[in-house]
Amino acid sequence: MDGVSEVELRKVSVNAEQHGERIDRALALAAGEFSRNYLQQLIDEGAVTLNGRAVGKPALRVKAGDVIAVELRPTQQSQAFKAQAMDLEVVYEDAHLLVINKPAGLVVHPAPGNWSGTLLNGLLARDPEFASVPRAGIVHRLDKDTSGLMVVARTRAAMDALVKAIAAREVSRQYLALAHQPWRGGAQVTVDKPIGRDPRNRLRMAVVDLSVSPGKQAKTDVFWQANSVAGCWVRCALHTGRTHQIRVHMASLGHPLVGDVLYGGRPESGMHRQALHAFRLAFHHPVTGVWQEFHAEPAADFLALLALWGLSYNPNAGPGGH
Q1: Catalytic hit among 143, 145, 221, 260
Q2: Helices (DSSP H) in the chain: which residue ranges?
Q3: Rounded to the nearest 5 degrees, what angle is found at the Cα of 144, between the Cα atoms of 138 and 149?
Q4: Terminal-residue alpha carbon distance, the chain
Q5: Distance from C-alpha of 243 to C-alpha of 136, rounded to nearest angstrom
Q6: Is 143 tagged catalytic?
Q7: What are phi and psi of 189, to 5 degrees?
Q8: Which of 63, 66, 182, 321 gives a 20 to 30 Å CA spacing to 173?
């Protein structure tokens, strides 16, 4: 939707496969570039009709042959899906997917406070075909100030396969982190603690007791790499992908990440963001099935702090993980 027309009217006929679906889910297939929350807002505002009648409930079930019409009204969110040229470090590319090394400071997906200048905007500028894939092919995210490897789908088939693989924990994601306090645990520690919204601060996540607070199971393997007087260098492997998972789990061990002020860390010697880098990404190619493995060296601020601590970067250091 461009900024010239105030409203775009989009119609879709419900097919046999969608028979019995909730209308908000059926609508998401017709307007996949928008979030479910946005589409539900349109339903609440009376901008969606079913067979010519206004829809009041997102849970309304549709039938094969029904016609859904939606007025896609320009909002900050709808106008966020615009191409914006930017330099992206592409590690690998083929007809089905893209692997990029995201710099710290780049937001992955438009959201309140960051409706432009995101990775999604850059992908749309790099190849208009990304507009035909939901969320421009983004299947997983990194925090704004976390650097490192991400895979992006270029086709719907590749996206569906990657989402399924991530859910089945068949995608290996490993991170390097610099944390406060020298490491005093074993060479490998597995943190298996559920994570949810911090009941005392809704802007944070926290390790929670599921019998008291809502949350989801979260599991991280932590591999000790080296110590300095000031802190420790660790490698983390995710089994689950919860919001801020490594940051929360490391803080729960008494080792908040350097620069991570949200979870008890503090800036140090030029590291003013959480010292976290997704350095390894591995998975079976969603189309060919061939095992793919990618590595990316940490950013300059991370390497500079390592050097200041008297440690040298070695991508092959330490034991293997998931």
Answers
A1: 143
A2: 23-30, 36-44, 119-126, 156-167, 245-252, 300-308
A3: 55
A4: 42
A5: 20
A6: yes
A7: -130, 135
A8: 182
